[in-house]
Amino acid sequence: MDRDEELDKELQFHIDTETDDLVASGMTREEARRRTLLEFGGVARAKEAVRDQYLRRVADGLLRDMKVAVRTLRATPLVSAVAMLSLTLGIGANTAMFSIVDSLVLRALPVREPHQLATLSNGLGPTSTWSYAIWSEIQRRADLFEGALAWSSLRFNLAQAGEMQPVSGLIVSGDFFKTLGVSPSVGRTLTAGDDTPGGGSEGPVAVISHTFWQRHFAGALDVIGRTLVIERVPFTIVGVTPERFFGPEVGRSFEVAVPIGCEPLIRGKDTALDIPTNFWLNVMIRLRPDQSMEAATSTLRALQPDIRAAAMPPNLPARLAPEFMKSPFSLETAAGGTSALRQRYTQALLTILVVVGVVLLIACANIANLQLARTAARRHELSVRVALGASRSQLARQLLVESLLIALTGAVSGLVLALWANRLLVGLLSNSVNTVSLDLSINWRVLAFTMIVTATTALLCGALPALRASAASPSHALKEHGRASDGSTPRTASALVVAQVALSLVLVVAAGLFIRTFVGLTTRPLGFDSERVVVVNVNASRAQIDPTSRIPFYYELVDVVASVPDVAAAGASVITPVSGGGFNSFIEVPGAPQMADSDRTSLAQWVTPGWFATYGTAIHVGRDITNRDDKAAVPVALVNEAFARKFLPGRDPMDATVKIVSGRGEDQVPKRIVGVVADAVYRSLRDPASPTLYVPLAQGSFPFPLTGISIGARVTAGSPMRLARSVTASLAARDPDLVFNFRSLAEQVNASVAQEQIIALLAGFFGLLALFLAGLGLYGTTAYAVATRRSEIGIRMALGAEPAAVIRLVLTRVAWQVAAGVALGAVACAWATRLVATLLYGLEPNDPATLVGSTVTLVAIGLIAGWLPAYRASQTDAAAVLKKS
Amino acid sequence: MPRRLERTDLLQGTLDLLILHVVAFGPLHGYAIAQRLNAITQDALRIQQGSLYPALHRLERRGWLRAEWRLTDTGREAKFYALTATGRKRLNVERTEWARLSQAIGLVLQTEH
Question: What is the ipTM of this complex?
Answer without folding.
Answer: 0.81
